[in-house]
């Protein structure tokens, strides 16, 4: 949907706006005789997404985390009897009708997010004052998830020298900091290794100032062979509003893979750029 408005119309000053709304409903309708397809694509992470009838294509697939085991919890009689305080508490849902069956296995994996946004918005404002022009464009995606592989390797580091994100490392569970969000990081292979789970699937909703362009049109009436000269200054990706822990929720490290879901694995963020230019029309 697109709405164009002419807010102010005048000889010296004018202002117009464009609002766009986009929504996509993505569902797999048939896989023939196949029940499901599990897909990977990142180092040390065998399964990232699932393709299954009725679900969005490449839905994220993994274990659900329901907090962190705390000191004093009845761990011995749980579905994770070998867990320790500070370990993630996985949901036991592999029994009939999603009920607990007393153990945590690969059968407890389920869909934990979609790479497709619920909707996207764009909002552009164009203003002119005499020979000056100003164009401002905001854009955002809302309701999608993104696999933060850097976060996954922070929670489950595959080697001790690997760089880690500050938030889950500095605020990890300890007896003195009994957080219910980030596991302790002690012996991570004993509680899941690099298995994709709901801790590493983040809300990737974002709204950004995509582009600002200021231009000035010179008076060329006295120059016969010139039709127009426009001098401009432009900035791209100037502001980003998001709760995503990585650098940029819009990236995809697996964009060149034909069977990939979206994932952020050391992806380079959208660069903030500034441009000065001159357009000359003869």
What does this protein look like?
This protein has 282 residues and is mainly β. The chain contains 2 helices and 16 strands. The strands form 4 sheets. A 7-stranded antiparallel beta sheet has the order 1-2-9-10-13-14-16, with no helix packed on it. The protein has a 4-stranded antiparallel beta sheet with strand order 3-4-5-8, with no helix packed on it. The protein has a 3-stranded mixed beta sheet with strand order 12-11-15. A hairpin with a 6-residue loop joins strand 4 and strand 5.
Number of distinct helices = 2
Q: What is the approximate shape?
A: elongated
Class of secondary structure makeup = mainly beta
The amount of helix comes to under 10%
Give a quick account of the main beta sheet: strands, pairing sense, barrel closure: 7 strands, antiparallel
Stretches where pLDDT is under 50 for at least 5 consecutive residues are: none
Series of secondary-structure elements, N-terminal to C-terminal:
EEEEEEEEEEEHHEEEEE
């Amino acid at each position: 949907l697109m709405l164009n408005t002419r807010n102010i119309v005048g000889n010296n000053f004018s202002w117009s706006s464009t609002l766009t709304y986009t929504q996509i409903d993505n569902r797999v309708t048939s896989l023939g005789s196949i029940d499901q397809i599990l897909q990977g694509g990142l180092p040390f992470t065998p399964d990232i997404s699932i393709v299954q009838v009725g679900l969005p294509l490449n839905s994220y697939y993994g274990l659900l985390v329901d907090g962190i085991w705390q000191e004093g919890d009845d761990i011995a009689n749980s579905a994770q009897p070998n867990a320790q305080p500070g370990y993630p508490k996985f949901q036991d849902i592999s029994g009939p009708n999603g009920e607990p069956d007393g153990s945590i296995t690969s059968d407890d994996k389920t869909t934990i997010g979609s790479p497709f946004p619920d909707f996207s918005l764009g909002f552009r404002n164009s203003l002119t004052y005499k020979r000056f022009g100003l164009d401002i464009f905001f854009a955002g995606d809302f309701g999608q998830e993104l696999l933060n592989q850097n976060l996954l390797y922070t929670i489950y580091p595959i080697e001790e020298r690997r760089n880690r994100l500050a938030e889950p490392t500095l605020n990890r569970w300890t007896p003195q900091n009994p957080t219910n969000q980030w596991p302790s990081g002690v012996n991570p292979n004993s509680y899941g290794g690099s298995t994709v789970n709901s801790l590493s699937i983040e809300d990737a909703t974002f709204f950004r100032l995509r582009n600002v362009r200021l231009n000035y049109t010179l008076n060329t009436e006295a120059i016969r062979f010139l039709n127009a000269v426009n001098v401009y200054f432009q900035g791209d990706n100037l502001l980003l509003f998001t709760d995503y822990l990585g650098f940029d929720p819009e990236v995809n490290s697996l964009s060149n893979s034909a069977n990939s879901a979206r994932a952020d694995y050391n992806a380079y963020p959208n660069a903030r750029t500034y441009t000065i230019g001159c357009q000359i029309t003869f």
